[in-house]
Amino acid sequence: MERAHAERLYTRAEAARWKVPLEVFINAVERGAEKAFPGRTPSQTELDRYCDGLHLADLALACACAIGRNDAWDHFVREFRPSMYRAADALDPSGGAREVAESLYAELFGLRERDGIRQSVFRYFHGRSSLSTWLRSLIVQRYVDRHRDTRRLAPLPEDASPAALAAAPPSSDVHRERYLLVMRTALTAAVAALAPRDRLRLACYYAQDMTLAQIARVMREHEATVSRHLSRTRKEIRGDVERRLKVQHGFSQAEIDECFASVVDDAGNLDMADWLGTRTAAESERKELAFDRSTDKDLP
Amino acid sequence: MNRNTDRIVEQAIAHELKTSQRPPSVDCIDAETLAAWIDQGLDDQATLAVEAHASNCARCQAMIAAAVRTAPVTVHEPRPFRVPAWWYPLAAGAAAVIIWLVVPDQRDHQLTPSDARPTAAAPTAPSPSAPSAEPPAAPAAAGRAQLEVGDRVAARAREDRAERKAIDQAKKEEAAETFSEAAAPQAPDAPAQIGAVAAAAPAVAAESPATLRRSARQATDVVEVSSPQGAVRWRLGTAAGLERSDDAGASWRAIRQIAGESLVAGVALSPAVAWFVGRDGVVLLTTDGVTFTRVDLPDGVDAVSVTATDGRNAVVTTVDGRRFRTGDAGRTWQVN
Prior knowledge:
Largest sheet of chain B: 4 strands, antiparallel
Number of strands of chain B: 12
Number of helices of chain B: 9
Distance between the termini of chain A: 43 Å
Oligomer: heterodimer
Largest sheet of chain A: 2 strands, antiparallel
Shape of chain B: extended
Number of domains of chain A: 2
Structural class of chain A: mainly alpha
Number of strands of chain A: 2
Distance between the termini of chain B: 42 Å
Largest interface: A-B, 85 and 69 residues
Number of domains of chain B: 3
Order of helices and strands of chain B: HHHHHHHHHEEEEEEEEEEEE
Shape of chain A: elongated
Strand content of chain A: under 5%
Helix content of chain B: 40-55%
Number of helices of chain A: 16
Order of helices and strands of chain A: HHHHHHHEEHHHHHHHHH
Helix content of chain A: 55-70%
Structural class of chain B: alpha+beta
Strand content of chain B: 15-25%
């Protein structure tokens, strides 16, 4: 990076406020650029655009905290620590995620040392997001991974294990079994054929139980647009499934209706989370409440 | 059956999405990338890559869901109502029509002598509502009614012309007021051939837009634009021009060379990068928080809002509902 350009960024970031050496700041920007343009050298235009989008003030603060500037750390504790705890409490109102936030706080301070130098997690902040979003993402990542590890290690109920399900007595209706299998194959192919953004929107709604407002926020769309896209995607899937059943299996409309009916008959087993008994109490409660997901009411 | 089928499709989709996810892998999104995706800090290619991976990965979906649930709820204050520019001539026209309708007797009284035509009508002028309210009893009465209607149409046409002239004058006055600090010129006198009351309406029309615009300006709420961290703030619409605060609004520093009055909205992406838009297509961009580049919209239409992702990409909405997009810091604009 050109020195003059780096100095302009340094000035814009007001890094001198925290007495961050210019070299440290340049290293931080370059580390971020290496991650943003992996394995290649960006053009000057790309680099300019990248630098223009950086949260430079936050990056300067992170650099200062990483090298142990006390005034910067005091500022961070005052401005950002409360939001870390708020995020943890939003994940688990009973306080279960506070431990994650505390542990992250220690890592940010850099309790570990390598070659006599404090190793702070701050060095992984590149300024592509705000510092508060990055902190929330770190908490979320650790919480989700811990939750998944806990779930993985928990023994499955004997009668709900996949083996037990596989060994379940076959249905007496051979046609229904066939229809169910065909239907699920067609459905898997139809979902796989969706555009990634459509599939993500659908997964957020159906697999993650997010509200329309939450999906709208994260996908940067209007709530009504999300609803419209979901509706369109459902229609596309239905049309695709029907087409596959007709073309690939030569089903008549009556047989297609039978296929759908077979899924209705099998609806009790449709939810894999229920199958595996992995739905948490809170999730089950939320599902049972059948809340109106068109609103933001369930937000913390 | 159709609704049932829809419900079944929904259930089947939910099942499919919960069972067909790939397990976590080395390609999973890290926290820094997730944060960048949430804050729109990724380029298009990286954004697509994140979305493509997350659409098939249960862990990453769970992270997205958890991240959005931890997001602080921001309360957006409603924007102060701003009267669109096209409203002024419309309001002036409406005012003129209302006056014309409310005072028919005086209007007719004023119009008749200057527009005297040889008619077979009775010497006493009928009330304005009579021709339309009563069916013509005789050919003479019908002719009189037609002539009166003709008079009215002619008078309306003259009024319209005068009104348009007055509005044009008001626009000129407005332009002069906007581009120079000189006092607004006086509204011209109405044409003499139009009667006093008829002239009164255009006079109102002539003064209304400028007066309303001035009063609207005086009443315009000061717009405050805050950077994400909140320490650096900008204030538009004050007499001092565009102002900047580096201490979360405790003190303000005027940036005098920028006419703050003409700016109506802005967005600050960081303490240094901010976009501001205003009347006559004014668009200002700063990438260092100190110097401003003027990158106006091509056709000078009033801008009402701006959204931006960085110092290069922004979308400006104009008063007529069009959206102008730039991806090169305002050097070129594309209309959506």
